[in-house]
Each structure stands twice: as structure tokens, then as C-alpha cells.
Design brief:
The protein is an all-alpha fold and 120 residues long. It has one domain: Tetratricopeptide repeat domain (Serine Threonine Protein Phosphatase 5, Tetratricopeptide repeat, Alpha Horseshoe). It contains six helices and no strands. The chain has helices spanning 13-24, 36-55, 58-71, 76-89, 92-105, 110-119. Helix 3 (58-71) runs antiparallel to helix 4 (76-89) and helix 5 runs antiparallel to helix 6. The longest helix has 20 residues, at 36-55.
């Protein structure tokens, strides 16, 4: 009755692998990395904002671009898109506000500084 078990024997490797996967991943699903989900959401918001901008729905696009900037303050593409919208609307003051914000958050991009200096 007392059959001795040796390490590495008396188990099915497939079953052991499935159990390990379930322990490693909740219910067998791989959890996204900490910031991976956030970046996917930002990407979706950015795509939607681009779509709205192409349709000429600038106010809605501005809201979404601002959401992107709130999540990723150094998003150069969001700043560039906002600047483009303000240029299309002829809103010089709005463009200058965004340029100043872009300069403070994207210090490596001299394009924003150059553009702001041209406007003064």
C-alpha cells in the first residue's frame, strides 16, 4: 500500500504543465503587463481622434487629444495634431498655449520652440 513516489515520476507532464499555467496566469489567461493595457487604450483614443480630425469634428478631436496628453504628457503626435487643428481654426492663442505645454513636456523636440518663436 505504501508505494514510494520518486521525484519526477508518477505524474503526467501535460497535466503538470496545465496546472503550472493556471497558477502562473489567472484562470489560464495571460495578464497584460502593467502599462500594456494603458498604451493600447491611448492608441485607440489617438486613432479615434485622428478619425474625428479627418472628418472635421475638431472639438471632439481636441477632447480626445487632451486625454492622450493627460495620460502621456510627452506625446509629440498629440501635440502636433492639436497644433494643426488650432492652425486650421485660425486660433493663434490656442496654438500658443499648446506649444508652451509641448515645450515643457517634450523638451527634446526643438520644433515646438522654433514654431513658438516664429509666432512671437
Amino acid at each position: 500500500m505504501s508505494e514510494e513516489r520518486k521525484v519526477g515520476e508518477n505524474f503526467d507532464s501535460q497535466v503538470a504543465e496545465e496546472i503550472f499555467d493556471k497558477l502562473k496566469n489567472v484562470e489560464g489567461k495571460i495578464k497584460p503587463k502593467k502599462d500594456e493595457g494603458k498604451l493600447k487604450n491611448v492608441s485607440h483614443i489617438m486613432n479615434e481622434a485622428n478619425y474625428l480630425m479627418d472628418l472635421g469634428k475638431f472639438d471632439e478631436a481636441i477632447e480626445l487629444y487632451n486625454q492622450v496628453i493627460f495620460t502621456l504628457p510627452d506625446s509629440q503626435k498629440a501635440y502636433e495634431a492639436l497644433i494643426e487643428i488650432y492652425q486650421k481654426q485660425g486660433d493663434v492663442e490656442g496654438e500658443m498655449v499648446i506649444l508652451k505645454k509641448a515645450i515643457s513636456n517634450c523638451s527634446k523636440n526643438d520644433h515646438f520652440k522654433k514654431r513658438l518663436n516664429e509666432m512671437k
